[in-house]
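Subgroup meeting minutes
Present: P.N., E.W., G.H.
Scribe: E.W.

1. P.N. recapped why we're keeping a running log of single-chain structure predictions: easier to compare across weeks, and new members can see raw inputs and outputs side by side.
2. G.H. added today's entry (233 aa).
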Amino acid sequence: MINKKVNSVQEALQGIEDNMTIMLGGFGLCGIPENSIAELVQKGTTNLTCISNNAGVDDFGLGLLLQKRQIKKMISSYVGENAEFERQMLSGELDVELTPQGTLAEKCRAAQAGIPAFFTPAGYGTEVAEGKEVREFNGKMHIMELAYKADFAIVKAWKGDEAGNLIFKGTARNFNAPMAGAAKITIAEVEELVPVGSLDPNQIHIPGIMVQRIFKGEKFEKRIEQRTTRKRE
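Output recorded in log:
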């Protein structure tokens, strides 16, 4: 019987060291691996290169690692909700690689599929294209993007089994799905961990072959990044 379950977040994150490149799933504060990020803060791992759609907020998500100066480079798409990120970027303390959102997703998916590079029109004619190969396809210019190379991918799922099969809930599917299997080692943090055979195969989003370690998170805050309301009429 395949069993990829580990008993704690500490065991799950074994092998993550300074200067590594880590993918972290989530979109805003939706579907982020909260327990794993908190453990990285506790471990004090430094000089990390983090690949994530955005960098959390000042006091939550990747913002916690930024507060402790544990990230040396951030590869992201949108970072507008984090004042500390902005300060470090503008001061030159943090190396930042801004990437179009669709390109970031495809660079993850390409790594997951074993595709070394692909061409996309996104970013052509901008500073995103600087130093990259350019080719024309069907009368439109494209730039070549390389798939990411990461040491670890840490994803968060709603439910998983001990063989590593994952089910995401709602919009938490986001970047978690293309990041699973896109690094040398994928760690899955789940809200509910069940025995093998408990999940309906038709409901599984990511097969266990993409996951090396899986553990049940202790708690999830599930913060709302922005709440907009109106006065009751």
